[in-house]
Amino acid sequence: MAKPLRIVVVGCGNMGSAHAQALNAMPEFVLCGLVARGESKARLQNALQSAVALYDTLDDALLDAQPDAVCIATWPDTHEALALNALEAGCHVFIEKPLATTVSGAARVVDAATRAGKKLVVGYILRQHPVWLRFIELSHTLGKPLVMRMNLNQQSAGEAWQTHKALMQSLSPIVDCGVHYIDVMCQMAQSAPVAVSAIGARLSPDIASHQYNYGQLQVRFSDGSVGWYEAGWGPMMSQTAFFVKDVIGPLGAASIVAREAGGEGQSANVEAHTRTESLRVHHAQLDAAGQFVNADEWIETADEPDHFALCRREQQFFANAIANDVSLERHLQQAIDSLAVVLAADRAVREQRTVLIKEMYQ
């Protein structure tokens, strides 16, 4: 077995903690540092029951710990600078989505990784989920064009609302979580997104006057496929429609049906966001009497990985990319493309117009 990679985790909140726990349990890595400005790193160190070194800045960790790799799980508006710093120091980088807060910033990080000859992996957790991958496969059996319907509204209070308010200092809900679901839509449609329309509303005086905590985007693809994604954060959000995951084509439909994860009180539960529970497949074929030929199929998914297991799979993907020099060109281009769509949606909200995706690359 190859020598384990020394890795530092930057950001010790929800996702940083999840990644640190996964890394600490993997033989491919040695967790050699936790980086955060506040006390979260000490709490995480205690939870890990480890003497892993603590640092206030990434610069300190790079100098002292001499890592081979860096895992970045901080606020989105810090991603670009931290990634560039780590790559310049000769480290491979795993970075939570979004890759940056601008398309040009994302391109700068990708270019820096290419120049440095280092691996850069973006944390699209649904790409490691076997049931979501099956959902995407099923979409390819439904004909074209596709209609894709997805949302992730979160009725947040307490600490969750504080986290959402902090996130909204740099981006809106349809940007933050939207990259996951736009990435799924791009894999389903297998064609280029061309234009985005969107609406948004500011539903709380607790956020900046220029920000909005509810948004919905509508994206059009070059093959005629269309999709919508909806996301809202805050104590005012409804619990009744936060888990919609459908894809519809001329030949039928496929849906994720999460009875428990989509139930009362689950919308702000991070564990529930990747749960699937079952897939329902509907066939559109009719007989001579105009009745359905086939009953709907139910595919149960009782053995799906939990959030910790998904984070571990992400890090295994990262380790394999490094060990076997896996090409990540397509992975990174798709990360930029999905970011371009959600940023186009954000512009569409603010400018109240349809935005062409090509505008985001100019």
Key words describing this protein structure:
six-stranded parallel β-sheet; alpha/beta; ten-stranded mixed β-sheet; single chain; 16 strands; 12 helices; globular; 362 residues
Mean pLDDT: 93
Shape: globular
| Sheet/helix structural class | alpha/beta
Radius of gyration, rounded? 21 Å
**Helix content range of the residues, please?**
25-40%
Short description:
The protein has 362 residues and is of the alpha/beta class.
Describe the structure.
The chain has 362 residues and is an alpha/beta fold. The chain contains 12 helices and 16 strands. The strands form 2 sheets. Strands 7, 8, 9, 10, 11, 12, 13, 14, 15 and 16 form a 10-stranded mixed β-sheet that branches. A 6-stranded parallel β-sheet has the order 3-2-1-4-5-6, with helices on both faces. Helix 4 packs parallel to helix 5, helix 5 packs antiparallel against helix 12 and helix 6 crosses helix 9. The protein is globular.
Topology:
Layout: E1 5-10, H1 14-24, E2 29-35, H2 40-48, E3 54-55, H3 58-65, E4 69-72, H4 79-88, E5 92-96, H5 103-116, E6 120-123, H6 130-139, E7 147-151, E8 154-155, H7 158-167, H8 173-176, H9 178-189, E9 193-201, E10 214-221, E11 226-234, E12 245-249, E13 252-256, H10 270-273, E14 278-283, E15 297-300, H11 307-323, H12 329-351, E16 355-356
Parallel strand pairs: 1-2, 1-4, 2-3, 4-5, 5-6, 7-11, 8-11
Antiparallel strand pairs: 7-12, 9-10, 9-16, 10-11, 12-13, 13-14, 14-15
